[in-house]
Design a protein that fits this description.
- The protein has 90 residues and is an all-alpha fold.
- The chain has one domain.
- The chain is built from two helices and no strands.
Length: 90
């Protein structure tokens, strides 16, 4: 029995977690770099740092249910089955 095309993909929920984690990691990276533009020992400098920490905690909160989801739903195979192509010469 051939695997279904839908079986060869991650679930919609897994993809949703993936892109949310990506967005919050990018936000954390952006916030920690924005912090460098503010003057040292200023209140403006602490806000991006707090946002960075919050984004990191959000990533942690998203990764834990994602790992549980992966334990219950097996991921698709890494490599699809190769189908040999037969070429004929006319």
């Amino acid at each position: 029995m051939k695997p279904n095309a839908a079986d060869a993909r991650y679930s919609r929920r897994a993809r949703w977690y993936h892109w949310l984690v990506f967005a919050f990691v990018a936000l954390a990276y952006l916030l920690i770099n924005v912090r460098g533009f503010a003057a040292k020992d200023s209140d403006v400098r602490t806000h991006p740092m707090q946002g960075h920490i919050l984004a990191g905690l959000t990533v942690l909160a998203l990764v834990l249910p994602r790992l549980l989801l992966r334990l219950h739903h097996t991921p698709p195979p890494v490599v699809r089955e190769l189908v040999p192509k037969i070429y004929t010469v006319r």
